[in-house]
Amino acid sequence: MNGLIRVLVMAGSRPGPDPLLSGSGVATKALLPIAGRPMLAHVVAALRAASEVGPITILAQRSAELAAHPALAGFADLHFADSGQGISASLAAALPEGDAPVLVTTADNVLLTPAMIAEFLAGAEDSDVAVAMVEKRVLLAHYPESKRTWLKFRGGWWSGANLFRLRGRRVLPLLDFWGRIERDRKRGMKIVAAFGPALLLAVVLRLITIQQGVARAGLRFGLKAKIVPMTEPEACIDADKPADVELIESILAARP
Prior knowledge:
The protein is of the alpha/beta class. The chain has ten helices and ten strands.
């Protein structure tokens, strides 16, 4: 596995009822069937087909239930671990020793492909923290019906693509900070405000691009942080709502 990147897949459940699971007979979102197999199986298959990927660890509150599912049998170098309370704490506990990079994604990133993984990792080189994003015009040119959460910066509006590259344990201070604000993860301006009034003002007045904003935020923790713009619009379409699942299934049906 020398030279291959370790992967952490966040496959846990958030507190409260999930509208996707209502009437499905499935207890956890990662096992919700999409196009005939659990969403987690789609993600693992894409990761295993990527030439850059090494060991894969699935993090979930009920990891044994996921490990026992037949759709996940047969994948090489696939591991399961129980997650903690919250995304940041779970990631911090799962990071390997040292500063080797780790690729992080989520179980609902169903449209993930090896090409997306390659594009992201190539763009994430030489960073401590890298975040995949899709610009609004890229998405709406192909899927105008898709509803996403947008971060508004000079030069464009952006939505997250559920791909992250972290430079090992040197990012622990950032994860600790994120643990205090992750409840506001869908409220872009609250997240920006947490990094201080100067950055908030610059974003509100559209004085900086998202690349500049993320770089400034990283410097607060002594980290080189960057955005990796993704060229495939599907990169930011994850399975959050019933409408998302319908769109994802239509996209999967059209793929070769």
